[in-house]
Design goal:
Number of strands: 32
Radius of gyration: 21 Å
Shape: globular
Distance between the termini: 43 Å
Helix content: under 10%
Strand order of the largest sheet: 1-32-31-30
Number of helices: 1
Structural class: mainly beta
Largest sheet: 4 strands, antiparallel
Length: 424
């Protein structure tokens, strides 16, 4: 059964690559003019009356979509006094919405995007630099001014990878083509002037596909990018995963590790850099490498678990990993040994956030919000959205963000953006 699941996941990975390449075709011609955005402040909304939970207080909630239709959102982004959500509806069109993080008052909504934008692709990336938020809609990248929601700039990149990330004051994105080389590019945040950073050719029939990098500061001097290559051999439909360390300062490859995972698959999340180590997330394995030379320090294989959809985190000197089989692990950073594990939780499809020695995440499998004790893995509570009393489709399926000063958690239940007080 496990082999069958891995074959299915492998097929899905190939299919997603093909879809990404097909999406690079010219956009279809619009027959009907785009529908103008609706002022969310002029529409009456229906909320579940007296919404409450046995485990937390809901400070405020406000509709993601103007008529409270089922929507999805990026991981909420907290910047100064605002929190930013998005409102991806069934037609995949998506806008950004900003609210006052303390009381939920509506501040602005974007209306400058392509009306057929097909949704924000870089859902798991770093978005924010100072007062700008940058992200990717299929072939287009955007930067938005968070002070007012106005579009700062947009840029088109053919064959662009749907995932982008911000490192320092640069936005990184790769350009991949079927059967050709792949190139990692970057631009300064203030204006889209792309420059090539690193290129990789086809090797032994494998077409490269570069993912968002992570930054390692070597010896406190050299800036080194850790770049994942998820390659495909289109003639045999075989996959393989490589990891490269590219020295930006010296403009040379420091080291590379070829064909890391046995199944040729991996998570698209950038590697985690911590104390001269690189923690890499395979589809069913977790690896630790020496950041200076690429030597493998330890590797853990998880025969019955998969780590494709949620990102690992490091918290209180532990590597926290949440698998798609709804089991959460805490691993020793030096050895990879299990410190604790809990098989009775949900599987996150977005991210995990931490506050006061606890781990919080929403689960796509159960639709619940979880609170886990980071010291021992004990599940403190699990909760369905309070609005489930009014609609059975309410689900804590998305990402979470926590304001460390107030202890407020921000998330959504597919209908409402919500602010939750964790100080109970």
């Amino acid at each position: 059964m496990i082999k069958l699941i891995k074959i299915i996941l492998l097929s899905l990975s190939l299919f997603s690559v093909l879809v990404g390449l097909i999406s690079c075709d010219p956009d279809p011609i619009d027959i009907d003019p785009p529908i103008p955005p609706i002022d969310t402040m002029d529409v009456d909304t229906i909320a579940c009356p007296n919404y409450e939970s046995d485990f937390f207080n809901v400070i405020w909630q406000t509709p993601l979509h103007f008529d409270t239709l089922l929507s999805r959102s990026i991981v909420p982004q907290i910047v100064d006094d605002i929190v930013v959500f998005s409102d991806r509806f069934a037609d995949n069109n998506e806008n950004l919405k900003a609210f006052d993080k303390s009381d939920g008052n509506f501040l602005w909504i974007t209306d400058d995007f392509d009306p057929n934008n097909q949704g924000i692709k870089s859902k798991h990336s770093n978005y924010i630099y100072e007062n700008l938020m940058c992200f990717n809609f299929s072939k287009k990248s955007y930067c938005v001014n968070l002070n007012n929601g106005n579009l700062h700039w947009e840029s088109v990149m053919d064959n662009g990878n749907p995932r982008t990330t911000i490192i320092s004051n640069y936005l990184y994105q790769s350009q991949n083509s079927m059967g050709g080389e792949a190139t990692l590019l970057r631009t300064r945040i203030n204006a889209p002037e792309w420059e090539n950073v690193y290129s990789m050719p086809v090797v032994f029939g494998y077409s490269p596909s570069l993912e968002s990098p992570s930054l390692y500061l070597k010896n406190g001097i050299d800036s080194v990018l850790m770049i994942q290559n998820r390659a495909v051999n289109w003639s045999t439909n075989e996959l393989k995963v490589d990891l490269m360390a590219y020295n930006l300062t010296l403009q040379q490859l420091e080291w590379q590790i070829l064909d890391i995972t046995e199944d040729g698959n991996s998570s698209v999340f950038p590697p985690i850099i911590y104390q001269d180590k690189v923690y890499f997330q395979g589809a069913s394995s977790i690896h630790c490498f020496d950041a200076k030379n690429g030597n493998e320090i330890w590797k853990r294989e998880f025969e019955n678990d998969f780590f494709l959809w949620g990102s690992n985190i490091i918290f209180e000197n532990k590597l926290i990993a949440n698998s798609s089989t709804r089991e959460i692990f805490a691993l020793d950073l030096e050895t990879g040994n299990t410190i604790w594990n809990n098989p009775d939780t949900g599987s996150t499809v977005e991210n995990m956030a931490t506050y006061d020695s606890h781990i919080y995440f929403g689960s796509g499998g159960t639709g619940k919000l979880y609170k886990i004790n980071a010291n021992n893995g004990v599940k403190v509570w699990e909760s369905r959205p309070p609005n489930i009393e009014c609609t059975s489709d309410a689900s804590f399926v998305g990402g979470v963000a926590i304001d460390q000063e107030s202890g407020y958690l921000y998330t959504q239940d597919q209908f409402f953006a919500m602010c939750i007080d964790l100080n109970n």
